[in-house]
Design brief:
Blueprint (H helix, E strand, L loop, with lengths): L1 H8 L15 H26 L6 E9 L5 E9 L4 H21 L7 E8 L53
Parallel strand pairs: 2-3
Antiparallel strand pairs: 1-2
Helix pairs in contact: 2-3
């Protein structure tokens, strides 16, 4: 009977898992420092290129594993300043940041898993209140028409239509 319990306590080694070698603390510290520096420089260059003050956004990277167990880095971009224009540009800023990280990380030190945004606004800052619930269903502005090529003539392909009365279903 004790053999059954002893067997349950032993850990089976799976053939697809490899033993990870212990990395010395000095090498781990150097790799972490390189990751932080790549993230810091990538954000600084992206903000500088786009004219955003560097105090508005900071970066933090944490080690993570993906679904397959591969080690990598999850990046948090923290917003410290509230500006309406900034919220509209976050996807473009993230794409520029990813491009800069790819240029700086040629040795694949980061293995970037993903980027998350976090609002870290100061508590003393005056925040706006929520608008009326019905305001979310009213259009704010008309969509901007697409720009046409300069050389292409702007002609209509279809004639204008005129409103007409509907015919009763029995007359078709």
């Amino acid at each position: 009977m004790f053999r059954i319990f002893r067997f349950a306590k032993t850990e089976k080694k799976r053939p697809h898992e490899k033993r990870s070698e212990k990395v010395p603390a000095a090498e781990r510290a150097q790799a972490n420092s390189a990751r932080r520096e790549i993230l810091r420089i990538g954000l600084r260059e992206s903000l500088l290129r786009n004219g955003i003050p560097s105090a508005w956004i900071s970066v933090e990277g944490i080690r993570s594993k993906d679904s397959r167990g591969a080690a990598g880095t999850q990046v948090w971009l923290k917003i410290h300043h509230r500006d309406v224009r900034l919220c509209d540009c976050l996807p473009a800023l993230e794409a520029d940041f990813r491009r800069r990280i790819a240029l700086l990380d040629r040795a694949q030190v980061l293995q970037l898993h993903g980027i998350s945004w976090q609002f870290a606004l100061p508590k003393a800052e005056q925040r706006p209140t929520m608008p009326h619930p019905g305001s979310w269903f009213t259009p704010l502005a008309q969509p901007v028409p697409r720009a046409h090529a300069k050389d292409a003539p702007r002609t209509r392909a279809f004639a204008a239509t005129m409103p007409a009365e509907l015919m009763p279903a029995g007359e078709l």
